[in-house]
Amino acid sequence: MNDILQNILVLTSVALAVAFLVKKFFWKKSKPKKACGNDGCGCH
């Protein structure tokens, strides 16, 4: 019984770690494109 519980905990922690890495490195949010000067970037 302990082996099954231990395997479940290990697999859950590995899955959470992989999900975190995928979200951090591969799930990039697309930034809304704004015309220059509308967002106060100081380019004009």
What can you see in these coordinates?
With 44 residues, the chain is an all-alpha fold. It has a domain at 1-25. 55% of the residues lie in helices and 0% in strands. It is built from one helix and no strands. The chain starts with a helix and ends in a 19-residue tail after the last helix. The model has no long low-confidence stretch (mean pLDDT 82). The chain crosses the membrane at residues 6-26. This is FeoB-associated Cys-rich membrane protein. Keywords: Membrane, Transmembrane, Transmembrane helix.
Number of helices: 1
The H/E string reads: H
Q: Give the low-confidence spans.
A: none
Percentage of residues in strands: under 5%
Number of strands: 0
Give the oligomeric state of the chains in this entry, treating copies of one chain as homo and distinct chains as hetero: single chain
Class computed from helices, strands and strand pairing:
mainly alpha
What is the overall silhouette? rod-shaped
Helix amount, in percent? 40-55%
Mean pLDDT: 82
Head-to-tail CA distance between termini: 68 Å
What characterizes the major β-sheet? none
The rounded Rg comes to 21 Å
